[in-house]
Structure formats: structure tokens, C-alpha cells
Design a protein that fits this description.
Blueprint: H1 24-55, H2 61-93, E1 115-121, H3 126-142, E2 149-155, H4 160-177, E3 183-187, H5 194-206, E4 212-215, E5 221-222, H6 224-236, E6 240-245, E7 248-249, H7 255-279, E8 290-293, H8 294-300, H9 319-329, E9 333-337, E10 343-345, H10 351-367, H11 379-414, H12 416-419, H13 436-463, H14 466-471, H15 475-508, H16 527-551, H17 553-567, H18 569-576, H19 579-587, H20 594-597, H21 601-611, H22 627-636, H23 638-652, H24 655-665, H25 668-681, H26 688-695, H27 698-710, H28 718-727
Parallel strand pairs: 1-2, 1-4, 2-3, 6-9, 7-10
Antiparallel strand pairs: 4-8, 5-10, 6-8
Helix pairs in contact: 1-2, 1-13, 2-7, 2-11, 2-13, 3-4, 3-6, 3-21, 4-22, 7-13, 7-15, 7-19, 9-11, 10-11, 10-15, 11-15, 13-15, 15-17, 16-17, 16-18, 22-23, 23-27, 25-26
Length: 729
């Protein structure tokens, strides 16, 4: 792609115009009404828990600490529960405080707008990326608004074979759809800033030709109606800088993937409706499936480098929260379109893949601790950042709470002989006329109620809505799925607690995270991989369980619900990742979702494209197969070479990349040596960086193409000869 030669038809200002909004008094009342519930619940539960600790042989400093941990953890649970409560009543009785209710957008004219749909990728499954792009493109075409959109695949891939595969897939797609003017592909030579840097690089070079930008992930999929509605909402609300949709998990195949998919689809609407109740125009950005106004985003969301060393210093990893905060700092509204249908994404299919994704998010969210007190941020933005941090700190806090509880039991067990003659301590709350065991059961029951109440409201929401019941397969299927999902989440919660605790500790010790592509296929976790990832968790569960039994069988029975998931983490990780288990659950009517029972056209089309992919005439012999063969094709195949060289030459016209490309190709003498080695020894004799250097040099690619055709076959590596034999040349 070459840089634009015309100015933007975008907004005329970087400050938001005045527009309809929720009155500050009403927004303040919403915040008070919402947050008062978890505060009151936490106060009452903490009093009961303090009373329980007191009547167990008086008070001590250790009990003060465990009470503080209980209050923090209970408050976080009550905060989540309150979202479910408010979400239920909002879904039943409605709420005027929604972006979709702020203006009549359905008939909004978008003829004067231009929207870029950008898909940043990094060593992804190329066939899935371009099948998704094709499905989205054709869905937008069916709305009659295709001329208002352009599509950009923004590659950060650093594997040579991925680069060639992406180029040929783009060329085939653009040719078949007649989209060379509107479907673009660009690969960066410098991956600075990762995803946020990729988008920033795009905006710097091409952002001014569009008024809006919709960012998708490699596994995102959206309906044409949803994309058009996002543009209409922005046109109807000129004071809005960003609108985040709520992506629904789809296409889960493993048992774990389908359980996560069901929980997301079944409980998600309640939580997001409750979230929108109090955030209003101070919403958040989740990094994808969102639309933003390009001009203010370019003006205000250039992320700073954090001071200090990694993992806390340097580039901001979880850029999305920060970008939303920067927009709010300059008075642009950020909204959550929780009731807008047609936004989808895919999720990890195994516990280990889920944890690997959380590892990246954990480091990014902990980085936000350096931004909490940044000058000019709104209070609600600081709250978003704080909640993101607490989302991961809650795991080590929970583990510490359990360890302290075990320590209190152990201390009592070891000192039991000395304490046996002490008088019983009465509860300091006179209204409690129950024994210590009943008191413990009461605290436990209240805590479990807070944790599971949103699930109960999810069931009530379904019972009250016949159409919703049918969309999930009927009431019996819903009830069975909820029960099994509760068991699954209970088993996996301690496993994820240990994962997150390990992540937090490693980050605090200065260990950063590598940026890699997400594993999105449901091929199942190998036993060896599961043993490596969960062996320590299994030992912790066995050792802790034996110690709990030694201290007190009663304590062990209280604690067993936490231990089971740890002890059986290895087989659970393997079995839950299997597609066969997921398909068996589907046959039993478990974890059914509306998108599974009645897929929207865009998802059906995506499935058809993946099941019957069109073989490209650019792909060369089908059975060469390896990554090396793709590099061979880029050199020897006239079509693939022409596409590659043309893109290199076009990219060289952009001053943003010309210097980087020259530096990557290296000095002339070095390039000549690499060329000869490639022809004589094949791509496998060169490193990935050396292959990238040759692929980045126009002169090398044109020279190699001519030489491989004119040199005697016996002077070339066998891989070149095999290619000629496959073609019959």
C-alpha cells in the first residue's frame, strides 16, 4: 500500500462537540446506588466473619490480617454479584442510559463517512484470517454499504513462510472479490510496540483517509449489520470517541471451550448490562471489536513509554484500557454497546492456552499500577485500571487467605493442649444465638450465595423469556448446562488461582512475557504438556490435602472443594481440551448457545469457507508442504514472486518504511553471499533473519528469480529441483 494522497474526510476537531449525555447528577446517583450494595454486603459479612474469628479463642494479629483479606475478596465477589443483580433488572425492565438509546441512529445517513476495518495479525493461521476477512467483507457487501469501508490486514509476522502465505492469500482474496482498491495488506519490518504499535503505525501512514476505525482481532468476526450500526451510532453521536461492543464467544469445540462459550453467552449479558449501568460514557476499551473516531484517537492516544525496566517499564502492553482513559481525559465519551448484536470472537480451547493468554494480560494489567495516579485521568478511568489490577491480584490474595486459614487451624491443633482449659469465648454480636459450627456454615453460605447469585439470576432471566429459553435449547438443557458449568468452574478455579499467583510473583521478580500468537485450534492438550504445566499444582494439592487431614478431618472436608481441582489438574487439562468431549457434551444437550443452534449467516459462511477452501493457483505444488517450500515459491513461482516484488516496491514508496527495509536487507556483499547459499543449500541453511533479509530486498528477489530459472538444475539444491519436477518443467 502506498501512502494516501488526499486529506481526511474526518471530523474537524480533536475536542468533542456538545451532544446529548446523561446528566452528572444522575450519573453520580447511579454510582452511589451501585457501589453501596457491595460496600454494605461486605460490611455485614466482615462483621460476621470477625465474630467467627473472635469466638475461636479470642483475637490476634494474624486474625486481623485474615479479616482484611476476607473483606477485600468478599468485596470483589459482591462487586461482581451486583453486576448480575442490576443486569437482571435492566434486562427485565430496561434502561435509558444506553448508547443505542441516546439518538435515533437506525436511519442515520453514513454516505459521508469512511471507515477502516483493521486486522492486526502476528504469525496467525493464515487461512482462518482470510476466511474471516472474506466472510466480513461479503457480510458488509450484503448491507449495500460496502463503499463506505476499506479493509486492512496489518501483519507483524516475523516468520518468512507466514509472510509469503499472507501475501498470496491477500492477492487471491482481493482478485476474487475485485477488491485491490479496498482490501489492503501491509507487513511491518519493525515490530516495535506490538499490537498497539502496529495500529499506531497504520494510523501514522493511512489514518487521515478515514473518519472511523474498527479494530478486530485475528479471530474476530462481525456481522455487516453490526459494523454499519457502529458507524451510524458514531455519526449520530458526535461527542463519542469510542464504542466497544461485547464480543460473544463462538465456534468452541473442546469441552473447556464450549463450557467457557456457554458461560460467556449465558451470564455475559447480565454482567455487561450491569457494567453499563454505572460506567455510562466513562466506559472501557477491550482492544478489539470496537469502533473509534480516528482524529481524536490519533491526537490523544499515542501511548508513552513507561520509565524503568521491564516488565513494568517500557512499552505499555495492555494498551486498550489506557487508550480509553486518554480519550476520557480529553472529554471524549467512551460507551459500551452491550445490547448491539453481531459481535463475535473465538476463545482458547484448553486450560493451558487460556492461562497463557492470561499471562500476557496479567503483566499488562499490573503495569497499570504505574498509571493510577497519572495527571489528568478521570476517576472512573482510575477505577477501571484498579479493577484490572485487582482481577489478577485477587488470586494471590485468595491463596494467602487459604494459607492463613490453614495456619490458624494448625496453630490451634498444635496448642490444643495449652488452650483446652481456657473458657469459651462468647460471640460479641448478641443477636447470634448459634454455635460456632453453625456460625461457620452461615459465613460460608453467605459467601457461596454471593458467588452463585448471578448464575441464579441468569436462570431466572431465561425462565422469564421463552425466546431465550428456546435459543439455549430449552429449560432442561439450560438447567443441566448451568449445573455442569458450576462444577467445571469450581474445579478449575483453584487451578487458575495457582496459575495467576505464579504469574504475579514472576512479574514482581522481573520476569517479562514473550509475545506469541494465540493457539486457537482445538487439537487437545498432550499428556506430556499437561504434566509439565500442572505437575507442581498436583503436588501442592496432594501435600496440602495430607496436611489438612493431619490437622483435622473436619478441616479437610471443608477444604476438599479447593483441593480436588489441584490434585486432578493434569487429567482435567487433557480431557477438557479434547474435541471428542466437547462433541459428546453437545450430543447430550450441554452448553448449547444461540449461535450454535441457529448460526447467523456470517458464521455459517465462515464455516463453509473453512470446510471447502479454494485452492490458489499461486500456491504451487500442493505436496511440498513445508515452510521452506513457501520461500522457494516466492523465488521460483512467477506469480508469487511478482506479487511479493510488487508489494516490496510499493512499500518502498512510503518513507515510513524505506529506511527500515534498507537496513534489514543488509550490506551488498552480505546479500550476495546469502543469495548463493540459498540457491546452493536451500532455505533451511539460512536463519529466519537471513531469509527475511533476502525476502525484504527487491534486488535479491528479482535476481534469485532469474537465476533459479537459468542455472543448471544440478547446481541447485534439491528443493528447487523438486519444485521443477512437480511442475513438469
Amino acid at each position: 500500500m502506498s501512502p494516501p494522497d488526499h486529506p481526511a474526510e474526518t471530523g474537524r476537531h480533536s475536542q468533542p462537540p456538545r451532544g446529548p449525555t446523561i446528566a452528572p447528577v444522575k450519573r453520580g446517583r447511579r454510582l452511589f446506588l451501585f457501589f453501596s450494595i457491595p460496600v454494605v454486603l461486605t460490611g455485614g459479612a466482615s462483621l460476621l466473619f470477625a465474630d467467627l474469628l473472635w469466638r475461636n479463642n479470642g483475637w490476634s494479629d494474624g486474625k486481623s490480617f485474615i479479616l482484611g483479606l476476607f473483606a477485600i475478596l468478599f468485596c470483589l465477589a459482591a462487586f461482581g454479584c451486583t453486576h448480575g443483580i442490576y443486569g437482571f433488572f435492566i434486562r427485565r425492565f430496561g434502561d435509558r442510559g444506553r448508547i443505542t438509546q441516546k439518538a435515533d441512529y437506525h436511519a442515520q445517513d453514513i454516505s459521508g463517512s469512511s471507515t477502516a476495518i483493521v486486522i492486526p495479525i502476528y504469525n496467525e493461521d493464515v487461512s482462518r484470517v482470510f476466511a474471516g476477512l472474506r466472510a466480513i467483507h461479503e457480510a458488509v457487501r450484503d448491507t449495500g454499504q460496502l463503499e463506505r469501508f476499506e479493509f486492512y490486514v496489518l501483519s507483524d509476522s516475523n516468520q518468512p513462510e507466514k509472510w509469503i502465505e499472507e501475501e498470496t492469500a491477500w492477492f487471491q482474496l482481493a482478485r476474487e472479490l475485485g477488491g485491490f482498491a479496498t482490501i489492503h495488506y501491509r507487513r511491518r519490518t519493525n515490530n516495535e510496540g506490538k499490537k498497539s504499535g502496529n495500529v499506531r503505525d497504520f494510523l501514522r501512514a493511512w489514518g487521515t483517509r478515514h473518519r472511523y476505525m474498527i479494530v478486530l482481532d485475528a479471530d474476530s468476526i462481525m456481522t455487516g449489520e453490526a459494523l454499519v450500526d457502529l458507524v451510524r451510532l458514531m455519526e449520530a453521536n458526535p461527542q463519542v470517541g469510542l464504542i466497544q461492543t461485547v464480543p460473544v464467544l463462538v465456534r468452541g469445540e473442546s469441552f473447556f471451550g464450549r463450557a467457557q462459550q456457554f458461560a460467556n453467552r449465558f451470564y455475559g449479558p447480565l454482567f455487561t448490562a450491569g457494567l453499563n449501568y454505572w460506567v455510562q460514557d466513562g466506559g472501557n476499551y477491550w482492544g478489539h471489536n470496537a469502533i473509534m473516531r480516528v482524529e481524536p484517537f490519533m491526537a490523544h492516544c499515542d501511548l508513552p513509554q513507561l520509565p524503568g525496566k521491564k516488565p513494568f517499564g517500557g512499552q505499555i502492553l495492555s494498551h486498550d484500557f489506557v487508550e480509553a482513559a486518554l480519550l476520557r481525559r480529553t472529554d471524549w465519551e467512551v460507551w459500551l454497546a452491550w445490547d448491539l448484536e453481531g459481535s463475535y470472537e473465538e476463545g482458547p480451547q484448553g486450560i493451558i492456552e487460556h492461562a497463557q493468554r492470561d499471562r500476557r494480560w496479567c503483566q499488562g494489567n499490573l503495569q497499570h499500577g504505574m498509571l493510577l495516579f497519572a495527571k489528568g485521568l478521570r476517576g472512573i478511568s482510575r477505577l477501571h485500571l484498579s479493577l484490572g489490577i485487582l482481577g489478577y491480584l485477587s488470586s494471590p490474595l485468595w491463596l494467602l487467605f487459604l494459607l492463613l486459614g490453614t495456619w490458624l487451624v494448625a496453630r490451634r491443633r498444635l496448642l490444643e493442649g495449652n488452650l483446652s482449659d481456657l473458657p469459651a469465648v462468647e460471640a460479641f454480636t448478641p443477636y447470634l444465638r448459634i454455635g460456632a459450627e453453625a456460625h461457620g456454615l452461615l459465613v460460608f453460605g453467605i459467601t457461596m450465595t454471593i458467588l452463585f447469585l448471578p448464575k441464579i439470576f441468569g436462570l431466572l432471566d431465561t425462565i422469564c423469556d421463552p425466546a431465550r429459553r428456546r435459543s439455549f435449547g430449552g429449560l432442561a438443557a439450560v438447567f443441566s448446562s448451568v449445573c455442569v458449568e458450576i462444577i467445571v468452574s469450581t474445579l478449575l478455579a483453584p487451578v487458575l488461582m495457582l496459575f495467576h499467583t505464579k504469574f504475579v510473583i514472576s512479574i514482581l521478580l522481573g520476569q517479562g512475557v514473550n509475545w506469541g500468537p494465540q493457539k486457537r485450534v482445538a487439537d487437545g492438550t498432550a499428556w506430556s504438556t499437561a504434566c509439565s504445566a500442572h505437575f507442581g499444582q498436583t503436588l501442592v494439592g496432594l501435600g496440602w490435602g495430607c496436611f489438612a487431614w493431619y490437622l483435622s478431618p473436619e478441616w479437610f472436608y471443608w477444604f476438599v472443594q479447593v483441593l480436588v481441582g489441584m490434585v486432578f489438574s493434569i487429567p482435567l487439562s487433557v480431557w477438557f481440551s479434547r474435541r471428542s468431549w466437547g462433541m459428546a457434551a453437545r450430543r447430550m444437550g450441554l452448553f448449547l448457545t444461540p449461535e450454535e443452534l441457529a448460526p447467523p449467516p456470517v458464521l455459517r459462511h465462515l464455516a463453509e469457507l473453512e470446510e471447502a477452501p479454494c485452492r490458489s493457483d499461486l500456491s504451487g505444488p500442493a505436496d511440498l508442504g513445508s515452510g521452506e517450500s513457501l520461500i522457494v515459491r516466492a523465488v521460483i513461482d512467477p506469480y508469487v514472486n511478482a506479487v511479493h516484488v510488487t508489494l516490496l516496491r510499493e512499500k518502498a514508496l512510503n518513507p515510513e518504511y524505506a529506511g527500515e527495509m534498507a537496513a534489514l536487507s543488509g550490506p551488498q556483499g552480505h546479500s550476495e553471499e546469502l543469495r548463493e547459499r540459498l540457491l546452493a543449500d536451500g532455505p533451511g541453511a539460512l536463519s529466519a533473519l537471513e531469509n527475511l533479509a533476502l525476502l525484504s530486498d527487491v534486488d535479491s528477489m528479482t535476481w534469485l528469480h532469474s537465476q533459479v530459472w537459468i542455472r543448471p538444475a544440478e547446481s541447485l539444491h534439491g528443493l528447487w529441483q523438486r519444485y521443477f519436477l512437480e511442475f513438469g518443467a
